[in-house]
Write a structure and sequence with these properties.
The complex is a heterodimer of chains A (429) and B (222). With 429 residues, chain A is an alpha/beta fold. Chain A has 19 helices and eight strands. In chain A, helix 10 crosses helix 16. The longest helix of chain A has 24 residues. In chain B, a hairpin with a 2-residue loop joins strand 2 and strand 3. The longest helix of chain B has 23 residues. The two termini of chain B are 31 Å apart. Classes of the chains: A alpha/beta (429), B alpha+beta (222). Chains A and B meet through helix 19 of A and helix 3 and strand 3 of B.
Chain lengths: 429, 222
Amino acid sequence: MNKDPAVQNHKKMWQELGLDVKLHNEVLASINDQFRKTVANQKNRPAGMAYFDLVLHESHGGRIAEIIAEKKKGNKMIGTFCIYVPDEIALAVDIVPVALCGGTNFSVPYAEKTFPRDICPLIKSTLGLAFSKTCPYAPIKSMAVGETTCDAKKKTWDILAQKVNFHIMELPQKKGIIDTHLWLNEVNEFAGKLEQLAEKKLTAEKLGVAIKIINNKRRGLQRLSRLRSQNPPPISGLDALVVMQAALNDEPVRFTQRLEELNRELEMRTEQGISPFPKGVKRIMISGCPAVMGNWKLHSLIENAGAAVVADETCTGLRYYDDLVDENPADVEGQLAAIADRYLKINCSCFTPNNDRLDKIIKTARDFKADGVVQYVLQYCHTYNVEAIRVDGMLKQNNVPSLKIETDYSEEDTGQLRTRVEAFLEKIA
Amino acid sequence: METGTDPLGNAKTILDGSPYDRITATGYGRYLAHENFAYPVITEIKAYALGAYFLFPGCRTVIDIGGQDSKIIKIINGKVEDFEMNDRCAAGTGKFLEVMAHTLGYTIEDFGIEAMRAQKPVSINAMCTVFAESEVVSLLARGEKPGNIALGIHQSIVSRLQALIGRVGFLDEIVFAGGVAKNRCIVSLLEKNLARKLLVPDEPQIVGAIGAAIAAGCINKE
C-alpha cells in the first residue's frame, strides 16, 4: 500500500475523477522515486526550494483540488502543451491554464500501444498518462490547446480532437510580415475562443492585470537566471529546473511571491558564498529541448559528474521567461498585438531560418561564462536534432566546446551518457 | 578477459595477492570499482587517448570498437581534443559482431577469417542487432553462403564506423584499439576505406587499461 500522505488525502478525489487509482499510485511512486534519486539527493539546497518541491509533489493532488474549487465557482481550466500559448489571455477571463506535458517514462508504453514508437518521449509520456487514466487534468479541463510546432504533435491533435474539445493555434514557420499577421490572427482567434469558453468578454482592465501578473513571473525567473551567472552559482541547475517545472503548473501570483523569496535567499547565499558547488566549478549551458516535470535526467547527470548547469536555452529555461509583453497598450486590441509580438520572439527550432536562436545561444554562453554547451535533443525531435549541426558549427567557430546528447526518458542509456558527459568535462578541464 | 555477470568479484579475484600503490578504474564499471577499491576514475575516452599515445607517440586519432560502444577520439599530445561515440544501441560494436558470429555459427576468432575468404559480400541492411539477426536468418534460408554474409556484416560495421569518423574527422597516425581490432577483416576493410595503414597494438583490448595505469601513475608523481 502506498503510504504517501498525498496519496491518502486525494484518493477519493481521484476516484471521483474516474482515474485508475491503482495505476495512478504507481505513476506517482515512479515519479517520486526519480525525484528522490535526483532532486532530493542533492546537497546544500536553498531552504526556499521546499515550496517548489511541494508544488511538484502536489501537482496531481492539491493543485487539482484547487482547480476543482475554481470550477465550482464557474471558472474553467485549459490544458496546453507549448510555451507559445499565451497564459495572459486565459487569466484575463478567469480560466486556469496548465501545461500538460509529461516527463515520466512510466506512461510511455501506454502511448506506444497505439502510437508509433519513433515519436518524441514528451508526446508519448503525455498521451500515455491520458490513455491510461492517470492524468488528473484530463477529466477537469474544459479545452485542450495544441499548436503546430512539430508534425507528430499536429497529427496527435487530430486524433485527440475526436474525443476532446480542442483548439489549435497555427504557429508560422518563418518570422516575416505575413507570418506576423498570421500569428496575430491566431492570437485574436484564440482570445475569441476563450471568451466563448468562459462566457466572458475580455476587458482592457483585466487583460492589463493578467499581462502584469505573467510579466512579474517572468521578471522573477529572469532574476533567478541572473543569480545563476555567479561563480559559483548559489543554486544548482537541477533546482532551477524544478522552479521552472513548478512555473508551468502553479498559480502564477503565489508562485511569483515564493520565487522572489527564493531569490532573496539566493542573494544572501551569494553574499555569504554559499553554493552547492566549489568555486571554479565547470559551467555548463544546456540548449535545446525542454525537461518537464518528471524529467531530471540530464541536469542530474551533468551535476553528478561535477559540473554546474548555469543556463538553459530551452522551453523550460530562457525561452519561457525572456522578453516581456509591452504593458503600455490601453485597449484589448493593442494588448493582444503586444502579446502576439512577445510570443513570436520565442526561438523554437520549428522556425526557418532560425538565426536569432543561434545568436541567442552564443550570447547566453558568453553572458553566463559557460565552459561548454550540452545540446539536449529529445529522441526523434528532428528539428532540434538537425539544428544541432548548425549550432555545433557556430559554437566551434566561437571556441565554445559543445556536446550533443540525444536521449529519451528511459534509464537504459545512463552508463553511456555518463561516459560522454564525463569525457566532455575531462576535455574542457 | 570477460567481465561477465560478476565484474566486481572477477576484479577482486585478479587483484588478490597482487601488490599495488593505486588503482584507477575506467570503463562502464568504474564507479562500482570506485566504491570498492579504485581511486580515482577516468572515462574510457581519456584512458584510450592516454594508452594509445603511450604506445604510439605519433598517434593523433584513436578508433576504438569495444563491446558496448565504438568511439573516435582525436588527440593532441595525449589529451582528448574531440570525440564521438556511437548511439545508444549495440549497432556497430563488438557486441554486434559477437551476436552475428553466433547466428552464423562461427567463433569470434573464425568470424573475421571466414569473412576474408569470402568472394561476394551479401549486403546487410539492418543495423539494429535484433533486426540484423533476423535478416541473417532469412539470408541463410535463401541459401546465401555464411562466408558471404559474414563479409557483408563486416562491411556494414565498417561503413557505420566511417560515418562516425566523418563526424569528427581524423589525423594521422591512427591507432585502432579495442577487442575488435583483433579482427583482421575489419582492419583490412577500414584500411582500404581510409586509404592508410592503421597502427594496431599487439594487445588492442588493453589500451584502455594501460591508459588508466598511466593516469594512476601521474597522480602518484604529483
